[in-house]
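Progress note, project year one: complex with alpha-D-galactopyranose.
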Amino acid sequence: MNICYDEKRQIFKLDTPGASMALALADGKWLGQIYFGPRLNSTDFAWLLATDRPPYTPDRHPREAVSFFDCFPSAYPVDNAGDFRESCLSVRTQAGQIDCLPIFESWEILPGKPELAGLPATFGGADDCNTLRVILRDAAAGVRVELYYTAFIQLDVIAQSARICNDSAEAVWLERALSACLNLPYEGQELLTLHGSWAREGMIDIQNIGTGIHGLASRRGVSSHQDHPFLAIVSPGTTQDRGEVRALHFVYSGSFLAQVQRDQFDQLRAVMGIHPDGFRWKLEGGASFQTPEAILVYSDAGLGAMTRTLHNLYREHLIRGAYRSGPRPVLINNWEATYFDFDEEKLLRIARRAAELKIELFVLDDGWFGERDTDSGYLGDWKVCARKLPHGLRGLAEQINALGMRFGLWMEPEMVSENSDLYRAHPDWVIRTATRTPLRCRDQYVLDLSRPEVEEHVWQRVSETLRSADIRYLKWDMNRSLTNLGSAALPADRQGELGHRYVLALYRLQQRLMDEFPGVLLENCCGGGGRFDPGMLFYSPQIWCSDDTDAVERLRIQEGISMLYPLSCIGAHVSACPNHVVGRSTPFETRALTAMWGTFGYELDVTKLSPEEQEQIPAQVQRYRECRALIQTGDYYRLASLRDGQLDAKMVVDARGAQAIVGLTRVLNRPNQRPQRVRLRGLIPDAIYVDSETLREYPGEVLLHIGLPIELPDGDFQSKLIRLVRK
Ligand code: GLA
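Model obtained:
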């Protein structure tokens, strides 16, 4: 059992292979979270609670109760009760007051991990993990708080969530119900986060943790391009291989808050959860609210170990469905090839050539419905445009299938255009406040999924479309943020539930998709990576990573995203040059070698490529097929970053160290250089590795301690893939 309770010291200790987390009771009442770090065998650290020193506990020293709460490392801090730091819970009672201070009541250990009803979450049986449930209660408010801490047996992961139950007869309102709180001493750590924008997702940022509140958030209704629902508190100078990392990652796809506060006593408190701004959840008597979960990872071996822990966790305990470990098809998507300007013949011309070039799946993107020749109009109706597709989706799919390729489709089910039959019939089905026309974004509105009839309508349109042809892949897009939050159907005192209800309905829809169309490969998308989060990953084994397909930009974006997510889920395509977003031209091979480090595909008109480029495609596809299993399942190591110079280098290696793939790209060439090398990781020191192309042999220890020579052709944007096999 990897969870224990030391009754004498009143300490709960949760162990993972290399880490422990400790919760402790002060005066048998107040639950603190007092440790998260390297694994401990002992529980002899109750003195951390310092209950024998001022300010003492309130029972012993009621005079200074506020001082106690304002420095106590509360496991689930509440508002308006003496702790002035970031809190997790704010309960407004019938009296209109914020009033809830739950105290410890009981605990139990559950084998495995309970599901979180209606929410995406990591899963595991009794062989994988155990869960500590601690119950706190505020008898006066009638509120029970259940805290869940799941400790994984093979991975340095603790999953944390909370359930708030109203045991009284009267309704209360949750104005803040976060998922996780982590208290740590400040030891000069830095804060590592991912920021970005449209076409610039996943940029790594590191900052000092000065006094006060730091962190990031989304109030966009989606997890967002701009701020990623992740933060890591890292020891100063943490590298890929060295340094302590304590990371939090939020399994949620809507607005979120992720903050770290350095308080007056130089203590750190990190909190993570649904963004409290605009959130107000009415909890009727007898009802409960389940927060999404936050994943806590500990690494004492730098960021690389954190990355591999998250990759393993998500591959084994989050991603589901038929494609979870199956090979992902090499696809071609027509978006950058044609945009809205296509018809059946044009698509088939691309498809025919793509099939000859050994591409496995053809994806028809936006523009196949209504009279949609621009990004204005017709969203919501999903009626095939007969002018463009005279034989409908079925006819097109049949012709694609006859070429030996599977067929996939783009939809944006959560949206409606003003110019649509759906909007004309149901203008009240969009998210909007009572008195104002909602703001348009990309000329579209967001459907109010909190209404059951709207959710059902969306399901009908999606399922009808999927049944209308042999569709094996769905790109589920979402191209705007939520604004003007208001629902025509929710009562006034439930309007604050809209954002979360929207996300819950989205999850239900995607779950239904998994249940009723288990053979369909779902790829989520949100104008690129605007909803690239562990929540969506629970439903779709791959997510389109960015609308920026330029190879150099992608190196940066994919570095950030692959720091958290397995390569098997990162949608990456080869596109045309000059690149449509940045206007840069890079070699065709470099584009292919960049897209290899994800789910490989093409997004261009193959017929417009030069004959030499076209000829390269079958070999590129074949190379990906050969590498696919290792890319999808191998241990990933970041070797060099464009944040430090001109070289991007990474590798994957199988668990036995028998095979490895190394990717090298140099962005700008420099004159007058000595030969460069890059040290590899994860290999067996006393094994001999053979470069499968040149047949050159290298001792493992040489690759690990001296490095692999970087022998790239002259010129900018040069890239290479090296496959090493143990002799
Ligand atoms: C979004 C997606 C693109 C493409 C377009 C279609 O921007 O990220 O890949 O599907 O929508 O409108």
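The two ends are 41 Å apart (CA to CA).
The CA atoms of residues 337 and 595 lie 17 Å apart.
No further modelling is planned for this target in the current period.
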